[in-house]
Fold this protein.
Amino acid sequence: MTTPTLSPSFFAADALAGRVAVVTGGSSGIGLATVELLLDCGAAVALCGRNAERLDRAVAGLREARPQARIFARTCDVLDAASVQSFAAESEAALGPASMLINNAGQGRVSTFANTEDTAWTEELHLKFFSVINPTRAFLPQLAAQRAVLGDAAIVCANSLLARQPEPHMVATSAARAGLLNLVRSMATEFAPQGVRVNGILIGLVESGQWRRRFDAREQTELDWAAWSSQLAQSKHIPLGRLGLPIEAARAILFLASPLASYTTGAHIDISGGHSRHA
């Protein structure tokens, strides 16, 4: 199945002018695609990542393609509360207070119940929860204040379809993702009086470095990426017959973070190509 051609932006170039967005895990994949869309829509963007080299490379590309863009970047471990607090203070000093927070940091762990050690459970639950808790604590005062100025403020959490459709070979990640789904709903209710919306996306199989590495290690070397990924999508019973693109997840994030979703909170958008078996 042919992948649709996607334009770099689906909003007007100045739709988010005067707004500041923060993207964690913004140096690659869905995070970087989200940064690009936000910049293309006129927002100033603060992004962070753990890998300094990757972050520098991403920022260099962003500045080259968008020389007028307002960008602030810092290496930051979202599991380190003090580091996140410093990032929040520095980004506010550089760009102004944030009105959009995209919690995107995180990765999956492949393991079953039988071979997941206690330390692995602790690490996975800590990662999935505190990669959201720490940035939310650090930026919530800015978001609440900007809501009073701009009329809208939002948090968007990138989550996985595993939250509703667990896989036995990713038992710890599936459980943690389900907890994050619940956390988003709880925060949405608690933050509503402050005018801060909280939503999430549930991502299915999306093109990533992980899948590219599996492609490089493939046994059927005669298959190119298009054929290999199409075969993978068919084996996973994805109705649209292909893997998703990072920009397709980023578009949903951008919608939820923007004033277009001003009456939406506590919700999740499914980005799985129809792979979800849940309404």
Notes: The longest strand covers residues 153-160. The beta strands are 20-24, 44-49, 71-75, 100-103, 153-160, 196-203, 268-271. The helical segments are 29-40, 52-65, 81-95, 118-150, 171-191, 209-216, 225-235, 246-257.
